[in-house]
């Protein structure tokens, strides 16, 4: 039996001649009844910080060479640009490719280079090597298209509600950015122009991103290379065709990589792959630091791509075979996770922040990492014949898991496969045993933890009663930790139920003898 912390062991011994001994006895028995009701003690675990990321599975059906990834706003569907003529579309609940888009090459659009999802998730925009911006529905079917022929596009971004798409030409034409309005079939260019004497023009462009706005006043950031240095161009009024408002050189770099904008639209992260750095740039128009680098972070691997956590407090940076999580406020690396890839090139974060997908340029694989975890008491004790419950808690699962246990639990106990609760009434003694609890979700996330469990015997009836030998002519007494009742009445008190056993507490019994 396990006594709750702080409970005091109570002995029951009615005082001889005390008229209130029955009341006193009942008061003393009350704590024992409470102990019986709480025969199983659960060891609570302290609160823990967010679990570290762990690689759990890969998305089945991907291949080629992953260049870009995109995720629907609700996190249910992922899109992969992998160097082939079709987008791969995968279901995040099963980690399986469930469809492919139209064949862009067959349609005469060239090959996909980048993909972006409209805010409502109903439309998908794709840039191509032949200068097309193609709009698909969520299933990958063609809706419409618009082109600036002979201009290969390397990246695109959607402004506001999706009325406008901006695209960055590839290295063949890095002199301007392009603005597409698919609904009205218009295309216009915005040239790079020196915002100060000697400001370099780009020799190559690598990425483009948009800040907050209404579709006609969004900030636009373009990353690339200028004069052998990584550079970011910031357009704060791109629809006036006036050129960039700031040119931001990235010190200690040879080129810029990808751009990520935080959920609030106030901060942009720009990667510098070979320099292993990430530059955080203020894009809050109301800030005095607007258009400047406010922090520089260094990671212990190439910095190929980045994505903000949903709350904007962390930045996830991938490169080579690693993923680092940065504290945005300080620029410090909070954790670095080795991942099952050799050339990470793209990263996505689920709306909850619990799952992360990483695309591999070399193999075309898309891996899934998760923060899912299980917690449980470290050691619990049950008692034969008494109800027992214990809860195994699953946290950071985006998809509800099912539970299993190995080896089988003691006789009388069972695990609820849906909730993780262990309950029942133990039927037999069980020595301390270690059990493995597994939680599995349909997306391939599998997490385990171990518990130890012991089943003790039910307590035996306890009595201090003894028979005192007497001769026929003398009084006979049956004593049980008490004195004789002066009235000669027989008093037998049955104690509180403790662990299913009756504790018999007797008052003194005295019988007067008669002389012959």
Largest sheet: 4 strands, antiparallel
What is the CATH class name of the largest domain?
Mainly Beta
Integer-rounded radius of gyration: 36 Å
Q: In CATH, what is the homologous superfamily of the largest domain? A: YVTN repeat-like/Quinoprotein amine dehydrogenase
Derived from helix and strand composition plus strand pairing, the structural class reads mainly beta
Task: Write a structural description.
This protein has 516 residues and is mainly β. It folds into 3 domains: 54-370, 7 Propeller (Methylamine Dehydrogenase, Chain H), CATH 2.130.10; 374-456, Immunoglobulin-like, CATH 2.60.40.10; 459-516, no CATH class. 3% of the residues lie in helices and 44% in strands. The protein has 1 helix and 42 strands. The strands form 12 sheets. The protein has a 4-stranded antiparallel β-sheet, with no helix packed on it. A 4-stranded antiparallel β-sheet has the order 2-3-4-5, with no helix packed on it. A 4-stranded antiparallel β-sheet has the order 6-7-8-9, with no helix packed on it. The protein is elongated and about 95 Å long. The two termini are 53 Å apart.
Q: Layout of helices and strands, plus pairs?
A:
Blueprint: H1 21-37, E1 54-58, E2 68-71, E3 77-81, E4 88-91, E5 96-100, E6 112-117, E7 123-128, E8 132-137, E9 142-147, E10 153-159, E11 164-169, E12 176-181, E13 186-191, E14 204-210, E15 220-226, E16 229-235, E17 246-250, E18 259-261, E19 267-272, E20 277-282, E21 293-298, E22 305-308, E23 314-319, E24 322-327, E25 333-338, E26 344-349, E27 355-360, E28 366-370, E29 373-375, E30 380-383, E31 388-391, E32 393-395, E33 402-406, E34 413-415, E35 421-424, E36 430-440, E37 446-456, E38 466-467, E39 476-479, E40 492-498, E41 501-506, E42 509-511
Parallel strand pairs: 30-37
Antiparallel strand pairs: 1-28, 2-3, 3-4, 4-5, 6-7, 7-8, 8-9, 10-11, 11-12, 12-13, 14-15, 15-16, 16-17, 18-19, 19-20, 20-21, 22-23, 23-24, 24-25, 26-27, 27-28, 29-32, 31-35, 33-36, 34-35, 36-37, 38-39, 39-42, 40-41
């Amino acid at each position: 039996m396990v006594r709750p912390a702080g409970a005091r062991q109570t002995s029951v011994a009615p005082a001889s001649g005390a008229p209130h001994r029955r009341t006193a006895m009942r008061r003393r028995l009350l704590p024992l009844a409470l102990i019986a009701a709480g025969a199983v003690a659960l060891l609570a675990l302290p609160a823990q910080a967010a679990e570290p990321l762990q690689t759990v599975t890969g998305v089945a059906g991907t291949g080629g060479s992953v260049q870009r990834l995109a995720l629907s706003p609700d996190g249910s569907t992922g899109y992969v640009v992998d160097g082939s003529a079709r987008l791969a579309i995968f279901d995040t609940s099963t980690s399986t490719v469930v469809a492919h888009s139209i064949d862009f090459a067959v349609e005469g659009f060239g090959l996909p280079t980048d993909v972006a999802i409209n805010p409502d998730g109903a439309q998908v925009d794709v840039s191509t090597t032949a200068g097309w911006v193609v709009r698909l529905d969520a299933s990958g079917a063609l809706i419409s298209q618009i082109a600036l022929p002979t201009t290969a596009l390397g990246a695109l971004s959607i402004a506001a509600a999706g009325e406008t798409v901006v695209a960055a030409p590839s290295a063949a034409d890095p002199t301007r950015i392009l603005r597409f309005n698919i609904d009205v079939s218009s295309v216009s260019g915005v040239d790079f122009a020196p915002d100060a004497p000697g400001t370099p023009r780009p020799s190559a462009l690598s990425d483009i991103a948009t800040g907050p706005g209404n579709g006609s006043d969004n900030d636009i950031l373009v990353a690339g290379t200028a004069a052998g240095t990584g550079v970011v161009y910031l357009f704060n009024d791109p629809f006036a065709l006036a050129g960039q408002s700031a040119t931001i050189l990235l010190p200690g770099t040879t080129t810029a990589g990808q751009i990520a904008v935080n959920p609030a639209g106030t901060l942009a992260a720009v990667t510098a792959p070979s320099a292993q750095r990430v530059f955080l740039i203020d894009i809050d128009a109301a800030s005095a630091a607007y258009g400047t680098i406010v922090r520089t972070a260094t990671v212990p691997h190439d910095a190929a791509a980045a994505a903000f956590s949903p709350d904007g407090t962390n930045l996830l940076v991938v490169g080579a075979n690693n993923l680092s999580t940065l504290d945005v406020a300080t620029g410090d690396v909070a954790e670095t996770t080795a991942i099952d890839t050799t050339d990470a090139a793209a990263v996505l974060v689920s709306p909850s922040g619990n799952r992360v997908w990483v695309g591999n340029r070399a193999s075309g694989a898309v891996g899934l990492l998760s923060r899912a975890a299980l917690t449980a008491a470290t050691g619990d004790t049950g008692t034969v014949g008494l109800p027992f419950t214990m809860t195994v808690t699953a946290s950071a699962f985006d998809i509800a898991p099912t539970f299993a246990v190995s080896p089988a639990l003691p006789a009388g106990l069972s695990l609820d496969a849906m909730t993780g609760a262990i309950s029942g009434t133990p039927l037999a003694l069980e020595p301390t045993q270690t059990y493995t609890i597994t939680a599995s979700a349909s997306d391939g996330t599998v997490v385990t933890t171990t518990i130890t469990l012991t089943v003790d015997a039910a307590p035996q009836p306890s009595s201090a009663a003894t028979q005192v030998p007497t001769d026929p002519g003398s009084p006979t007494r049956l004593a049980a930790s008490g004195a004789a009742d002066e009235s000669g009445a027989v008093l037998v008190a049955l104690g509180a139920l403790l662990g299913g056993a009756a504790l018999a507490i007797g008052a003194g019994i005295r019988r007067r003898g008669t002389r012959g």
